[in-house]
TrEMBL record:
InterPro entries cross-referenced by the UniProt entry: WD40/YVTN_repeat-like_dom_sf, WD40_repeat_dom_sf, WD40_rpt
Keyword Coiled coil: no
Protein name: WD repeat-containing protein C2A9.03
Gene source species: Nicotiana tabacum
WD repeat ranges, renumbered to this chain: 308-349
Keywords in alphabetical order: WD repeat
Pfam families: WD40
Amino acid sequence: MAYQRVDRLDYMSLDEEMADSMDEFEEVFYRDDTNLDDFELVTEGTDTSAAQARKGKDIQGIPWDRLNITRQSYRLTRLEQYRNYENIPLSGEAVDKECKQVKKGGNYYEFFYNTRLVKPTILHFQLRNLVWATSKHDVYLISNYSLMHWSSISQNLSEVLDFSGHIAPSEKHAGSLLEGLTQTQISTMAVKNRFMVAGGFQGELICKCLDKPGISFCARTTYEENAITNAVEIYESTSGGLHFLAANNDSGVREYDMEKFQLMNHFQFPWPVNHTSMSPDSKILTVVGDDLNGLLVDSCNGKTIGSIVGHLDYSFASAWHPDGRTFATGNQDKTCRIWDLRNLSSPTAVLKGNMGAVRSLRYSSDGRFLVVAEPADFVHIYNTDADYQKRQEIDMFGEISGVSLSPDDESLYIGIWDRTYASLLQYNRRHSSEYVDLFT
């Protein structure tokens, strides 16, 4: 992946194209005759409930009637002008013939609430795994230098951990940096089973038990200059213990146990590793990165057992279906490809996004849905029971910091980074009976 240092976290690690896009977003939005009082009225933070959305309020609270452009016109402008980041030129234009024809109109999750009190942020423009739901009411996310917790029941936002100062482990484990770390810039994170693992821009790893004060473990995986931690994953090992994986730009994948935080395995690959995901039985690891092809490797010894061939650019996302046979990969060629472990000669489906790379993937725990997030504006929910031929499209404006399904699949959370309309969107799964709005 591209190595890009961050100078100011509050403006994230945007490349020039993304920064220009945000400036253009603001220039188009506001009328020339907008005075300061009107500007504050237009941009003031207001939450949106499902009941308000049904009455016509924009789900992000954008007051289109006071702006210089309609929502429909601005959507067309974004589709025409958004520039997808590619390492291989025109990779996103060469895949149209392969893509499955997918019907829009699915309605699997319905809008429930949007809070602008929550301000998700992004450190690196290619890494979008900074939102994690641990229940249908509890979400953890990164906001600048802080790990934050949002409760949708109490509507309370609280800081869990501040990375801006000095942090040091309160437990003693071999390999842990007892002197601690200072001003850690968080590039990726994962939360599961009451544990949080965060990866940093300089190869840092920080582990915390959410039920205990202090830090359990912190380390530097490498002191190489190109050291950014690209992805982390918490999972149950074949022995039943909790482990985590860290994928790094130094081309390494490291496995740690989460009892004593010992390094169990360190696998090296020919290229920077952007993402890994463990199969449901914890035996096979998908490895994707700065190469057109990905790998399937034995999780015990790191030996290659299969190749993933078909993408036209670098990949930054992967996910396993609960059946243990199907997995998905997301790429800068704007596609998500579905693979069957029993026949890797070609993907079973090629799904194309609207504007940009596929940056984040999540299968629902029951396997019925695949959530696909683009870098900005669009999240797609594919119906796997319909062979990925039907989808729901969630349409918003802003950079997507992460997407997460709750463990019971009842809630879907989407983090939006934007200078004005940063927020956390909540969608709830539709059932035969209608939801009762808790907020009106």
